[in-house]
Write a structure and sequence with these properties.
By secondary structure, this protein is mainly α. The protein has a domain of about 80 residues. Helix content is about 55%, strand content about 0%. The chain is built from five helices and no strands. The longest helix has 17 residues.
Amino acid sequence: MLVAVVGPEGSRGAPYVPFPSQDSLRQVQLAALACARENTSETCNQARKLGDPLMDHPRLPANCKDLIWQMLAKAEPAATNSFSRRQAISDPAERLLLVCRSSEKPGATDTPAAKPAGGGGINFGGGQR
């Protein structure tokens, strides 16, 4: 009985936060790839600026945040843009859109699909009795 009283109250208090769009995740991905490729403070700052807010996003799963964390940890300009540095940023960036997908079903309708008129069965006779 306590659960029935507390359950709905707890769910009403938190506002709905939409899942990040594929476009916003793509912007993070492109910024991280630019940081890996160009190795400049401007591109790496942009990658961190776009990725940081996603670390606190309540709807992103942990494996998605792990990828973002891996990118942000290495998104610093380096003296030499080594292959290992580029790979440390680009590998998680390339997997970002695959791992960070929403599990929600897009626009499910509330009404069931209309059934054809008539009863069940195959209706080989074609007409009414």
